[in-house]
Every structure is written in structure tokens, then in C-alpha cells.
Write a sequence for this structure.
């Protein structure tokens, strides 16, 4: 009888521990955002295909005006091509090019693409990967690489998201550029 009681108590304690851990583990979106930084130092450990798929799915879930989802994502794993887009890119890193659909007047609304980019940026960081958003390389892509990358003719590259593994022992967050104080950017009325 004592053995059953001890086992029951242990089972209840273990169940309580599991329930408690389920409530406190996982990625809290606010914590991920508050701890995020734009990574600059990456390792050569390749990003897994499952992580890439999850990151892209998060981009696809971004909000867009009238749910038009006017974007295309081009995942570039080929190190020769990544090197054409970004100089000195670390082997194992991938690039996700976020392209927006051109309107009839030839313009592209970058806002919706920026929302998708941010979703993927936060997703990468929540997976303990480094992420960095670039705008500079889009002119090279739009001028010379659209066909090579399979970007449709009626789309233009808007942003490039670099994703890679980072050295977890480097405290890059505390070494990141200082953020402005709330009173410098927030106004309450």
C-alpha cells in the first residue's frame, strides 16, 4: 500500500512539474523581440532545412493589406550565388530574398514585404539563429540576378534576410548598438 501511495505522489509531482514546464518553456515572442539584435558574426554550421521551412512559413503568415500577400520568397542556399549578393558571407548561411509584386504603375509597396521580413527575422531569432536584414543588395539583384534567382518579371527584390547559426558564447546582444531611450521616440497624449 505504501508503495502505491509513494508512486501516486511521485506521479502527481511529476505531472505538476510537466504542466509547470509547459507553461514556462518555449519562445515568448516579447522576450525574443526584446533580446533580438542584428547578427554580424555567424558560424559555418548550415541552417537546417526544417528551420528554413519554419522561417518561410512565418513569413507567409505576415499580415498584408486586404490579404493580398504580394510577395515571393527566394531561398538561396547556393554559396556561389550568396557570394554574388553579399560579399564575405559565411558558408552555411542562407539568404531569403523578399520580392514584392509591381503595381500597374510600376511601383512596389514595400510595407507588406517589410512585415513578412520582420516575421521571418523574429522567427529566425526565436530558433536561436542569427538574422540580419539588408536593403543594399536589392539593386544588384534587380539589375543582374532576377532571372538567375527565378524572381518573376513583375516582382522586384525589396529586402534580403541573412540567416545563419551564431556562436552562442559571444554576447553580441550587450555589444550591440545602444537603443534610444523611450522618451526619445515615444509620445503619450
Amino acid at each position: 500500500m505504501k508503495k502505491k501511495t509513494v508512486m501516486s505522489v511521485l506521479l502527481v509531482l511529476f505531472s505538476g512539474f510537466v504542466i509547470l514546464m509547459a507553461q514556462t518553456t518555449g519562445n515568448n515572442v516579447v522576450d525574443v523581440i526584446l533580446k533580438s539584435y542584428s547578427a554580424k558574426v555567424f558560424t559555418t554550421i548550415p541552417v537546417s532545412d526544417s528551420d528554413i521551412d519554419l522561417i518561410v512559413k512565418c513569413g507567409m503568415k505576415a499580415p498584408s493589406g486586404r490579404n493580398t500577400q504580394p510577395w515571393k520568397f527566394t531561398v538561396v542556399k547556393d554559396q556561389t550565388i550568396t557570394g554574388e549578393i553579399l560579399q564575405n558571407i559565411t558558408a552555411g548561411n542562407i539568404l531569403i530574398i523578399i520580392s514584392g509584386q509591381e503595381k500597374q504603375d510600376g511601383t512596389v509597396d514595400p510595407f507588406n514585404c517589410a512585415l513578412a521580413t520582420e516575421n521571418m527575422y523574429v522567427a529566425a531569432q526565436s530558433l536561436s539563429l542569427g538574422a540580419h536584414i539588408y536593403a543594399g543588395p536589392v539593386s544588384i539583384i534587380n539589375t543582374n540576378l532576377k532571372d538567375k534567382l527565378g524572381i518573376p518579371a513583375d516582382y522586384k527584390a525589396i529586402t534580403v534576410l541573412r540567416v545563419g547559426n551564431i556562436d552562442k558564447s559571444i554576447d553580441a546582444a550587450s555589444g550591440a548598438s545602444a537603443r534610444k531611450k523611450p522618451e526619445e521616440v515615444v509620445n503619450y497624449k
In short: Residues 1-28 form one domain. The beta strands are 71-76, 94-101, 130-134, 155-164. The first helix runs from residue 2 to 24.
